[in-house]
Amino acid sequence: MNRVHDSAPQGARGTARPAPTDPHVVVLSGANVVLPTGTVNGGRVIVEGTRIAGSAPVGAPTVNLRNHWVVPGFVDMHNHGGGGASFTSGTVEEILKGIHTHRLHGTTTLVASTVTGDMDGLAQRAGLLSELAEQGDLAGIHFEGPFISPCRKGAHSEELLRDPDPAEVRKLIDAARGRASMVTLATELPGGIDSVRLLAEHGVIAAIGHTDATYEQTVEAIDAGATVATHLFNAMPTLGHRSPGPIAALLEDERITVELINDGVHLHPASLQLAFHHAGGDRVAFITDAMDAAGFGDGRYMLGPLEVEVSEGVARLVEGGSIAGSTLTLDRAFKRAVTVDRLPIEDVVSAIAANPARSLGLYDRVGSLEPGKDADLVVLDADFELKGVMRRGEWVVDPQLG
Fold first, then answer.
1. DSSP secondary structure, 358-400, as one string
2. 112 and 72 in contact (C-beta within 8 Å)?
3. Which residues are annotated as a binding site for Zn(2+)?
4. pTM over 0.85
5. How would CATH label the architecture of 74-360?
6. Hey, what CATH topology would domain 2-72+367-397 get?
7. pLDDT at position 325, please?
8. What digits encode the pLDDT tens for the residues 243-301?
9. Where is the Amidohydrolase-related domain (predicted)?
10. Of 76, 263, 289, 374, which residue is the catalytic one?
11. Could you tell me which residues are annotated as the binding site?
């Protein structure tokens, strides 16, 4: 384990004759490497093929990353699209373009989120997305809607909302062919608690969101098996001193991972600090909640059946003005967390990689820089600007630093 960040050159301890260079091994050296145990200055990460390795042969090619940071590849568990493409309505080619757009910004593991639609259309979409998950392009599917509260619908079509009937929830997870990762529910609605139990039985995350639940109703849903808070603070009642609502219940319970959209629009900095203070660095997951405009630009877009205007990077419904997802990429969320919110970099790495990976059940493969895991990593400069992205041992963005 320690060899992953050992700063001494291989072979420096003895006089053994150099072994032939393995063309499938590369050593990233001299960087500040963020590991589960802390940050190692002047450390190194050894990549062998598609995996992180514990040692390297003498003479292995080296990339000098002095004055840079190496962190795990980002894991986004809530993302609706990017690069001009929607995961809810795009073609396969468009979806792949959206995935690639987010990879260029450091997201090496991505769950595709849908928005509210008719049940047959969502089931059909689940079939298409599951094929991309089977190919390894996606980490799974997140159904955000239609089982949400009309009182907290946000950018979802009210006409298509429905109560979370367990039979209909089952229809969607069956359509996903084992690739359903998460379903967001307003668990206070009729059928909500039974649907949570159904999801838990099938190994699918039940996420509490777009909800008008009371504190007590939220506690009941957590006890039934819910484990994620969908974009905490957004699309739910505010925290009150007599009626604390879902926020207090979600923050206080150690079983809950809380999603946060750290774009400076969805959350006041004090709300983000409140979440980290109460949930701790091991229960926060940064998400993008991105829509088509992420990595693409301002203009008019469709989010499901609803028209969205993106102006100066902020997405709002044309009718009503509700915030309609974000144009965030996780490299921007990372930089803001460190430079504006002044969070410890280790907590930021946990929130952007380890915690979502654990929540999704993927931490054995991604989410940290450890031998045996996928060689998914991000290179940042001293100002926390993205300079390199590696996914499964291949550079998506080559730092070209020598």
1. HHHT-TTTSSS--TTSB--EEEE-TT--EEEEEETTEEEE---
2. no
3. 144, 210, 231
4. yes
5. Alpha-Beta Barrel (3.20)
6. Urease, subunit C; domain 1 (2.30.40)
7. 86
8. 999 999 999 999 999 999 999 999 999 999 999 999 999 999 999 999 999 999 889 98
9. 69-396
10. 289
11. 144, 155, 210, 231, 234-235, 242, 266, 323-325
